[in-house]
């Protein structure tokens, strides 16, 4: 993890998420690029001329560069207050274009994208149509989403909600190791089934995965299979049990989050005290 992309809208939520980006970059000795994507207003319904567009874009870029400068200055001040040892200022990038598409294309040059999300209101829609969900659906690299209510603390434990019967989920373990290693963070992979529904195939798959990663220190990478009233409740219980700092989820296909979690996740889980979560593309 050498390059981190941090899209921002300059909101308080975004500032909160930047604390995660800064601390993780410091641990990993990584470079941060702070990105703002602006769009031309279409409120008038009138197609502007090319000259008008050029003037508008120049004004927009000047304005947002000013906001970016203020954002970075506030960050430098906060680093001093926090006695941070990171001395390299983040790079900045202000570009015009469609937000989601621009972030997804630029992300190909980075190892990780970190974004803030606006509390439970947005999180209840994070899989159902928000900017975050659209970025998560198409982004080619890991995406860390930080709720506005999440307060940074040292990242000691990542819980990976693993499907033992999904090849993509298992291959994502390598991506998670690459993310966690520079942070000196433990990964706890958990496969949850409903009570009474465990199968021999799942147990066999668990043994195969454990054997594949047997060379890793047992305190760094752990695997567990457990039962719960349902997958959601079992996951919530495990997150509390191990004092998780980040939840990791594998992205399988378009519409996956809605199919697997649906309304129960958004209404029950994301209104629970919130954790940052990292989405791993297969």
Polypeptide structure, described:
This protein is of the alpha/beta class. The chain has two domains: 3-147, Rossmann fold (3-Layer(aba) Sandwich), CATH 3.40.50.620; 157-281, Rossmann fold (3-Layer(aba) Sandwich), CATH 3.40.50. The protein has ten helices and ten strands. A ten-stranded mixed β-sheet has the order 3-2-1-4-5-10-9-6-7-8, with helices on both faces. Helix 1 links the parallel strand 1 (3-7) and strand 2 (31-38).
In short:
The protein is built from 10 helices and 10 strands. It is an alpha/beta fold and 282 residues long.
Order of helical and strand elements: EHEHEHEHHEEHEHEHEHHE
Binned strand content: 15-25%
What is the alpha-carbon Rg in Å?
20 Å
The percent range for helix content is 40-55%
Counting DSSP E segments of at least 2 residues, the number of strands comes to 10
List segments where confidence is low: pLDDT < 50 over at least 5 consecutive residues: 119-129, 254-273
- The CATH topology of the largest domain is Rossmann fold
Number of helices: 10
C-alpha termini separation: 18 Å
Quaternary structure of the protein: single chain
Quick one: overall form?
A: elongated
Going by CATH, what is the homologous superfamily of the largest domain?
HUPs
Mean pLDDT: 76
Would you identify the CATH architecture of the largest domain?
3-Layer(aba) Sandwich
Q: Which CATH first-tier class of the largest domain would you pick?
A: Alpha Beta
Describe the main β-sheet briefly.
Answer: 10 strands, mixed
How many independent structural domains?
2
What class would the helix/strand composition place it in? alpha/beta
For the largest beta sheet, what order do the strands appear in spatially?
3-2-1-4-5-10-9-6-7-8
